[in-house]
Specification:
alpha/beta, Rossmann fold, globular
Length: 218
């Protein structure tokens, strides 16, 4: 592989844009692979790429052991990205971290209707935001990096045929309901990527969706 092509691939993986950045990215990738390569050999190449990026973004090799990806997740997600489907996030921080996507990235956490539903129904704004997305006719990939209540809500909306989505990145973080929400998603027919247990969060969610976007942009 030429140096130019090698540089471009590392750009995609790490976001490097200078010689110094390239060198750091190259060394980081070697370290990540040395730490987790044996643990992810059973995964498809695209799935391994996602896991590697998550481990790099979090500096936590344990993610190689706790990430679960449904067989149809990558294909369904890439199909959505390829067709210009929208991306829905639970919080603005996740939305802010997504880059290189020409389609629409939506977040309804601060939407007027979200605030109204949250107050009237006495539910979290993140959960109410999923209802607003359904009312707005959202179609695409759902990326949840913070709120288990949002994940519970989107699962319910899909089950009741109130919203049609292509896949869910469900990695809410925390010790209350996060693990349970991901376990529930794993039992559905929805294409998914989850992390088992309480670990997850914005960096994980952003790394996963950006990895998919970069695959399609190659």
């Amino acid at each position: 592989m030429s140096n130019l092509k090698n540089f471009a691939l590392i750009n995609v993986f790490m976001g490097a844009s200078t010689k110094q950045g390239h060198d750091i990215a190259n060394e980081s990738r070697k370290i990540v692979k040395s730490l987790i390569d044996e643990k992810i050999q059973h995964l498809k190449p695209e799935e391994r790429s996602i896991v590697e990026r998550i481990v790099h973004s979090t500096a936590d090799p344990e993610y190689a052991e706790i990430i679960r990806i449904s067989d149809d997740f990558v294909d369904s997600s890439l199909e959505s990205i390829r067709s210009g489907g929208d991306i829905l996030t639970d919080i603005t921080m996740v939305k802010a971290g997504i880059n290189g996507y020409p389609g629409k990235i939506k977040c309804y956490i601060n939407h007027e209707e979200t605030l109204k539903i949250s107050k009237e129904e006495e539910i979290t704004r993140a959960a109410a935001a999923m209802r607003v997305a359904a009312d707005e006719g959202f179609k695409g990939i759902v990326v949840i990096g913070n709120s288990p209540t949002a994940l519970f809500e989107i699962i319910k909306l899909v089950k009741n045929n109130n919203i049609k989505i292509k896949s869910i990145i469900g990695v809410p973080v925390g010790f209350v309901a996060a693990a349970e929400s991901k376990e529930k998603l794993e039992k559905t027919d929805i294409p998914y990527l989850i992390t088992q247990g309480p670990k997850g969060g914005t960096p994980v969610a952003v790394a996963a969706i950006n990895s998919l976007i970069n695959m399609e942009n190659k």
